[in-house]
């Protein structure tokens, strides 16, 4: 790793950490104002809507900081991989229970399973980041059905398909999808940094997996991951 | 009778806001700006719960947890850690050293309040 990459990565880590202090102070101040308005019976739908907007944006900014920090760690090769035999269904159930419970439209995701259950040898935390990014995208770029995560336990490998019925990806964007900061030409005002899929691709590769994508505009997208059981 | 919470945070702006939030929810709050001051206050005031940052001058949150575990009276007081560090290692280390809860910054007060209520039952 070059000194330049190392220094840049350290600066990003420090900046990212330091930004969280004012973000926390802002979000706590919003919480405090909301609590006071409630207690004094001044809270109305206008205040509620706009204060909730501030909080949402603070947490979006916080996610961006986390993504930039992860990216910087990937570039400087300072991410430690801790592979272990992992139960994928357990990782998905955990995500479902803890991270996809407070959407306004109440959608989460479905899990379908076929074949004989088997564990894969991966970094559990990175696998969780992979799923969290792909499922978040599936929810973000669709608005009707619940996205589905299908686990197919085949003889040699586990195939995982994450499918949505969303806006799809234009064919001309597909070759660039995993590049950092690249965003599909049809995403319009849907927020994002363009870093999520780059992180996903890096983590999948680092865990000896593969990722492919099939998509049709206005019909939906399927990301297919493959992890062989013999990754030891 | 309201519960007493010891809040330890070295950033004055955040300390003041979280103190106000806790007081609005009927907790009695005492504050410290580093771990050393926090331990002294805990020994003299016997709070029902402690909320502490990790990275602070003089004595940090991990050292505070260690000191709490070594003291017969303090080891019974639950400590919730509030930190900007999201890494699994940092979270696990805090729990290994005796933390009763861990919340990453920024946080929603409702999440903090949920943890407080669970620990004060």
Characterize the structure shown.
The complex is a heterodimer of chains A (232) and B (121). Chain A contains 5 helices and 7 strands, in the order H-H-E-H-E-E-H-E-E-H-E-E. Chain A has 232 residues and is of the alpha+beta class. A 5-stranded mixed beta sheet of chain A has the order 2-4-5-7-6, covered by helices on one side. In chain A, strands 1-3 form a two-stranded antiparallel ribbon. In chain A, helix 3 packs across helix 4 (124-140) and helix 4 (124-140) runs antiparallel to helix 5. Chain A is globular. The relative contact order of chain A is 0.12. The model of chain A has no long low-confidence stretch (mean pLDDT 88). Chain B has one domain (4-119): 3-Layer(aba) Sandwich (Rossmann fold), CATH 3.40.50.2300. In chain B, helix 4 links the parallel strand 4 (79-83) and strand 5 (101-104). By secondary structure, chain B is of the alpha/beta class. In chain B, helix 2 runs parallel beside helix 3. Helix content of chain B is 45%, strand content 19%. In chain B, strands 2-1-3-4-5 form a 5-stranded parallel beta sheet, with helices on both faces. The mean pLDDT of chain B is 93. The interface between A and B is medium-sized, with 21 and 19 residues.
What structural keywords apply?
heterodimer, A: 232 residues, alpha+beta, Heat Shock Protein 90, 2 domains, five-stranded mixed sheet, two-stranded antiparallel ribbon, 19% strand, globular, B: 121 residues, alpha/beta, Rossmann fold, five-stranded parallel sheet, 5 helices, 5 strands
């Amino acid at each position: 790793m070059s000194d330049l990459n190392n220094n840049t990565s350290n600066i990003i880590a420090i900046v990212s950490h330091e930004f969280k202090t004012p973000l926390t102070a802002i979000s706590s101040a919003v919480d405090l104002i909301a609590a006071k308005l409630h207690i004094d019976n001044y809270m109305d739908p206008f205040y509620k809507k706009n204060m909730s907007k501030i909080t949402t944006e603070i947490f979006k900014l916080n996610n961006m900081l986390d993504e930039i920090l992860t990216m910087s760690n990937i570039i400087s090769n300072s991410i430690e991989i801790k592979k272990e035999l992992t139960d994928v269904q357990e990782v998905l159930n955990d995500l479902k229970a803890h991270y996809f419970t407070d959407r306004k439209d109440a959608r989460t995701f479905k899990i379908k399973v076929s074949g004989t259950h088997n564990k894969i040898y991966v970094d559990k935390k990175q696998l969780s980041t992979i799923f969290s990014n792909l499922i978040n995208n599936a929810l973000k770029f669709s608005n009707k059905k619940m996205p589905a995560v299908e686990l197919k336990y085949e003889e040699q490998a586990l195939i995982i398909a994450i499918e949505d019925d969303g806006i799809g990806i234009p064919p001309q964007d597909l070759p660039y999808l995993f590049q950092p900061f690249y965003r599909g030409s049809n995403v319009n005002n849907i927020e994002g940094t363009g870093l999520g899929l780059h992180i996903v691709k890096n983590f999948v590769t680092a865990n000896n997996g593969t990722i492919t994508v099939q998509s049709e505009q206005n019909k939906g997208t399927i990301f297919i991951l493959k992890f062989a059981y013999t990754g030891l | 009778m309201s519960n007493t919470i010891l809040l330890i945070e070295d950033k004055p702006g955040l300390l003041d806001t979280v103190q106000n939030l806790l007081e609005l929810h009927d907790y009695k709050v005492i504050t410290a700006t580093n771990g050393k001051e926090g331990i002294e206050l805990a020994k003299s005031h016997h709070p029902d719960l402690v909320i502490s940052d990790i990275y602070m001058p003089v004595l940090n949150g991990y050292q505070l947890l260690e000191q709490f575990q070594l003291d017969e009276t303090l080891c019974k007081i639950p400590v919730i850690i509030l930190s900007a560090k999201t890494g699994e290692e940092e979270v696990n280390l805090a729990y290994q050293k005796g933390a009763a809860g861990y919340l990453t910054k920024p946080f929603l007060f409702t999440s903090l309040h949920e943890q407080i209520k669970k620990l004060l039952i």
